[in-house]
Write a structure and sequence with these properties.
- The protein has 261 residues and is an alpha+beta fold.
- It is built from six helices and 13 strands.
- It is 27% helix and 38% strand.
- A hairpin with a 4-residue loop joins β12 and β13.
- This is NUDIX domain-containing protein.
Length: 261
């Protein structure tokens, strides 16, 4: 793996403004083209921000860099920085590092997504800010100490404004390039009002999705695969539980029924 350390010198009073710029532009620019953010830190004096990015190798970094430079979001970022003023950050520099060993157990990112329908049988889709070329099912990353069921309900609500109930799991998908394991659910809309999430989704809605019309909305092949599997679902049994002592929180038996919760 190749790691790139990017260091920004900032004025402390502009830290919040710079953080918003990072989350809106710099982070999605890298992640959408295949980089992984290892971590981001600020000094105690709040005058320096350090971000460390991970790439498979030098060739991967160079490809990501080319893609970023040619992207529409980067052009938007440059316009936004011009409006904010040159002192958004005073200067920046980067250097590259390789690991001297492995000191932590392997980790995978767990994400969730959901095929949500309304009473008319239409499917809930979103268009994300950093994936503007396609619609997709709503979803996102599972947070620490959060169950996958709580995560999908939260992510759908945050991204679309819609409240949902969940029927079951329709598929599990692993992106071995970015170490992401995605659990796909199917469920129903039960309330809320459609609304985009500022800085993340640019359009949300229910669409008359069919196998024939799928490619008109969803352009990326891995998103198409998940959606097709969820259209005619075969539900997987799954359970949520705690140990020491054992406590069964909920169980789905594979027939869209739950013994608790």
């Amino acid at each position: 793996m190749l790691h790139r350390r990017k260091t920004y010198t900032i004025r402390p009073e502009r830290l919040e403004e710079f953080t918003e710029f990072f989350h809106t532009y710099l982070y999605p620019l890298q992640v959408s083209h295949g980089a992984r953010l290892v971590g981001r830190w600020v000094t105690e004096a709040e005058d320096e921000v350090i971000a460390i990015w991970e790439y498979r190798d030098r060739e991967h970094y160079e490809q990501v860099d080319r893609d970023v430079r040619n992207s529409a979001l980067r052009r938007e970022a440059m316009k936004k920085r011009a409006r904010l003023g040159k002192n958004l950050y005073i200067k920046s520099y980067e250097d590259f590092m390789t690991a001297t060993g492995t000191y932590a157990p392997p980790r995978a990112i767990v994400s969730v997504t959901a095929y949500i329908t309304n009473d008319a049988g239409e499917v809930l889709l979103v268009r994300n800010l950093h994936r503007g070329d396609t619609y997709e099912m709503p979803g996102g990353q599972v947070e620490n100490h959060e169950s996958i069921l709580d995560a999908i309900k939260r992510e759908v609500k945050e991204e679309t404004g819609v409240d949902v109930t969940i029927d079951g799991i329709t598929g599990i998908y692993q992106n071995v390039s970015s170490h992401v394991l995605c659990v796909c659910f199917r469920g129903k809309a039960v309330g809320g009002e459609l609304a985009t999430q500022e800085g993340e989704t640019t359009d949300v809605g229910f669409f008359p999705l069919t196998r024939d019309s799928l490619s008109e909305y969803i352009k990326r092949e891995h998103f198409q695969l998940r959606t097709l599997d969820a259209m005619d679902p075969h539900y997987f049994p799954h359970a949520l539980y705690k140990v020491r002592p054992y406590e069964l929180i909920s169980r789905y038996d594979g027939n869209a029924t739950s013994s608790s919760r």
